[in-house]
Amino acid sequence: MKTMDHKSSVRERVWAELLKVAVPDSRFHFDFGSFIADFDGGEAAIARLTAHPHYRNAETIFIAPDNCVERLRKQALDDGKTVLMTTYSIKRGFWVLDPARIAPEMRLFASTLDGMERMGRPVDLADIRQMKPVDFLVTGTGAINHEGVRFGKGHGFFDAEWGMLHALGRVQADTPVAAVVHDCQVLEEILYPDVFDTVADVVFTPTRTIEIALPHKPTCNILWDRLDPHMFDTIPPLQELKAMGL
Q: Tell me: the pLDDT tens digits for 162-201?
């Protein structure tokens, strides 16, 4: 079976189970190809994550713009951590949420996709290059196995974000990555990662914390000859990275 056919098959099977526990999105309803859903038990999964040393030891965290980690963005701000994230729009760019600049009563709003653009500040890659390194990255995903191999919506956004941050020297091969998922998204089977796929170090579900023994982290930065031209055309940071010669 071809890799793309395999990934599509896995996604469709997991999405059928996720439909039973997912929280719909007002923009996309249950179109799991358009967003990463929150789910029943999401609070417990985040509680497991925030108790983990990767989170406790982090000062700067990249948190994907996924519904299942919205409450994590709020908690990170309350805990005094700097949050780096991307917007959810087609013109995907980076934003920083600084807890020192966001009043406590506004942090819930700031943690949402609409609020972050009002309460945070946009940053380009030159700004990110001057920031402290990212200590921890957190994402939702579509499916994941016990080796930390994850399949998202199929767009490759998180892997591109890792590639850009790696090219800038803000993450390294040992920078931990976490995935937050429902138990039904964890598979007992082999998944086949590509060279640019970012494997998780740890998986948090409502009932389990799954530590990955040998997570694979891409060190290839952005593979320009394999990048979807549509991604390049619609994601300004990729255009900026290319102009930087990285």
A: 999 999 999 999 999 999 999 999 999 888 778 888 999 9
d(CA 29, CA 23): 9
Position 1 scores a pLDDT of: 41
Is 3-243 assigned to CATH 3.20.10.10? no
Element (H, E) at 125: helix 125-130
| H or E segment to which residue 232 belongs | helix 229-234
Q: Are strands 186-187 and 177-180 parallel, antiparallel or unpaired?
A: unpaired
In contact, 86 and 95? CB cutoff 8 Å: yes
Strand partners, 83: 61, 97
In the chain, what are the domain boundaries?
3-243
Q: Which residues does 172 contact at the CB level (< 8 Å), separation at least 6?
A: 133, 166
Taking phi over 0 as left and psi of -120 to 50 as alpha, with beta for the rest, 245 belongs to left
- pTM greater than 0.85: yes
- Alpha-carbon gap, residue 37 to 63, rounded angstroms: 15
Residue 208 neighbours by CB distance under 10 Å: 12
Tokens for 96, please give them. Answer: 């920083």
Measured CA angle at 195 (ends 152, 3), to 5 deg: 60
Which residues, at least 6 apart from 162, have a Cβ–Cβ distance to it below 8 Å? 137, 171, 177, 198, 217, 218
